[in-house]
Amino acid sequence: MSSVIFLKKLEKYSPEKAIEDFKKAAQKANMFCILIKDKYRDDLFISAEGTLSEVDECTFKSIDNKDNLKYFTFNVNQVEADSIDSFTWLTQDEKYFWALDIENINHEYKFIFRFVVEYFKDNGEDYLWFDDVEWYYTAEDILKLSQMPYDSKWCSEKIV
């Protein structure tokens, strides 16, 4: 698995709100949402990227060897013309698209899971998909998983 993808409804999507949702979930998961870089052309949102970390931005920047640090990066995408119908094959609904993703995972699946649970508490219409599988989790699935003992297979097989 190289990416964890958040599928969002096209008609309700705002990249700025998506960034705020990530910040809110990070705070609730006791993580820091840092190093956010937004790209705009004129007043049009193009993309954004950032990092979710177990330490604040100042500490993160001061650590040279980040091998033992828990963090991952994320990207926020804009709606493009080819976004419509791009995930119908998976969701059976043409209104969802690849809005956000998590990369540079570094095998921190439990750390990511902690964030994902908080994210889906407030984003009940979104889906979570792993880029190399043919299934996805709903918010309801993620919240069910959060009530069970942690299972490291959650990202390699659908367990609810």
UniProtKB/TrEMBL annotation:
Domain of life: Bacteria
Protein name: Uncharacterized protein
Species of the source: Paenibacillus xylanivorans
